[in-house]
Specification:
Elements (H helix, E strand, L loop, with lengths): L1 H11 L19 H13 L5 H15 L3 H6 L3 H6 L4 E2 L2 E2 H18 L2 H5 L11 H19 L4 H6 L10 H11 L23 H9 L10 H14 L8 H9 L17 H14 L1
Antiparallel strand pairs: 1-2
């Protein structure tokens, strides 16, 4: 399977393949501080249909002007009003404004999201989950201290690992920031890529189940950890290496788990074929 996965990596992990992934919005900026903020927002809204995600992010970054970082640093009531008409499925302009208000505090105190994140990070832990939990805990704490409560919409933007969520969007953000290749930015130098967790959504979950990497019925954090461990057996130092390439199969190639004539030309066909009947019975 490693040979097949490496073939997919070579084919798909190219900068020109990024579109229509939300990661495209990060590369609209060259300043690391802008890319970090753009990355968090783009990953936070990476749910729903691809075209709707693109439309929502286009609108949001237009509201923020040339520099997302400067927009956050100077965020005030006037800038909050710019976001009042924003809506992306479950996320309102108020939710985004609350998040940016929180980031303003974080940047004022710690200069960057990376420096804030590593306050709860330990390089000797087996994965990034404890640090991610501390990151969310500290953000919720700062938000509650300022506003006294945390809204449902704001909670959705920060899917706390302690609740058992697969945390696809937060893990996606970390992949973008930590890994360094033609696709991922590698902006964060303080975290080991061997500790990252695979960002698991419906597409990734379906494909990994077809490949026999897990057998659970639900997509939870424990499922994401199980999938990551399976990839770690193939690529111990970089278990999230194949995430972008595999997600292209689900999103771009429209793989839905059912056999099609195109399957014969897919590098993974022989591995999926072994589990397709089981998948058809269990979903």
């Amino acid at each position: 399977m490693k040979t097949a996965l490496d073939g997919l990596y070579i084919r798909y992990n190219r900068r020109e393949r990024v579109y229509p992934d939300p990661l495209q919005f990060v590369y609209r900026y060259s300043r690391p501080a802008d890319m970090e903020i753009a990355g968090f927002l783009a990953s936070a809204l990476a749910y729903g249909r691809v075209r709707q995600i693109e439309k929502s992010l286009t609108y949001l970054f237009k509201c923020m002007g040339e520099s997302p970082f400067e927009f956050v640093l100077q965020f005030d009531r006037k800038k909050r009003r710019r976001l009042k008409d924003f809506r992306h499925r479950f996320t309102s302009g108020k939710d985004i404004a609350d998040l940016l208000t929180l980031f303003q505090v974080v940047l004022d105190r710690y200069e960057s999201l990376e420096k804030f994140f590593i306050l709860g990070y330990h390089p000797n832990q087996k994965n990034i989950v404890p640090a991610l939990s501390r990151f969310c805990d500290r953000l919720f704490q700062i938000h509650a201290e300022r506003d006294g409560w945390v809204s449902r919409g704001f909670k959705f933007l920060l899917a706390d690992p302690r609740a058992g969520s697969a945390c696809k969007r937060l893990n996606l953000f970390l992949r973008w920031m930590v890994r360094d290749d033609a696709v991922d930015t590698g902006l964060w130098k303080s975290i080991k890529k061997s500790q990252l967790i695979v960002p698991v959504d419906v597409h990734m979950g379906r494909l990994c189940k077809l490949l026999g990497l897990y057998s659970r019925k639900t997509l939870s954090l424990s499922t994401a950890i199980k999938i990551t461990k399976s990839f770690a057996e193939i690529e111990p130092d970089d278990p999230v290496k194949y995430d972008f390439a595999l997600s292209r199969i689900g999103i771009v190639e429209n793989c839905d788990g059912r056999y099609r004539s195109q399957c014969e030309s897919c590098d993974l066909c022989e591995f999926c074929g072994q589990n397709r009947m089981t998948f058809a019975k269990t979903g």
